[in-house]
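Box 3.1 A note on notation
Throughout this textbook, protein chains are presented in two layers. The first layer is the amino acid sequence; the second is a token string describing backbone geometry. Keep the layers aligned when reading.
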Amino acid sequence: MTAELTRGQNHPLPGARLEIRVSAGTPVVAGATLGDEDGTVHGVEQVAHPGAPTLPGLEVSRQAAADHRLAVDLDAVPDAVHRVSVLLALPTGGRGPARFGAVAAPFVAVTGLDGAEVASYTITGLEAESAVVALELYRRQGAWKVRAVGQGYAGGLAELFADQQLPQAHQLAGSIHEAVASGLARSVPAPPAAAPAHRPDQGTAP
């Protein structure tokens, strides 16, 4: 039976290999950070995002989408990692919404490899925020649990990363949005080339 979490609630995880499913109703960026016991993220190499989608025990989507599936293997996560924070952000600079309050509440679920839901969380209460820590998987006395977080940031990814003490917060946020923008651009077919304009023969001057 699925545990339907509310903000702040936690639930034990039955196994190490999991999938995190995201349904947002609008294209979002999905990523994750690897933190220590205090939740501190010590460098950009501890952030999985579209420009660097794979870390030990973790793989995220390569571009913005309304639906995501993130693969997690907690047995492969480094021993120094005690917190895996799953984050969502709205792409910047496009035609989409600029704040989560303008879209339906995102839904996230943790499932086993068989697809059975372990826990789910609908992220309600967001307004001006454009980035949010949806869930965190955390290690406590050798066992892993999932917690519904729902902490939003009006300052977007830069503010979120800064809150996790990442030194290069603003630079990384900018590079992620650049990678997402280029990915969205590649996914849009180029317009057909215009046919050359017909130019009537000028003839030879007498």
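The chain has one domain: 3-180. The CA atoms of residues 34 and 46 lie 5 Å apart.
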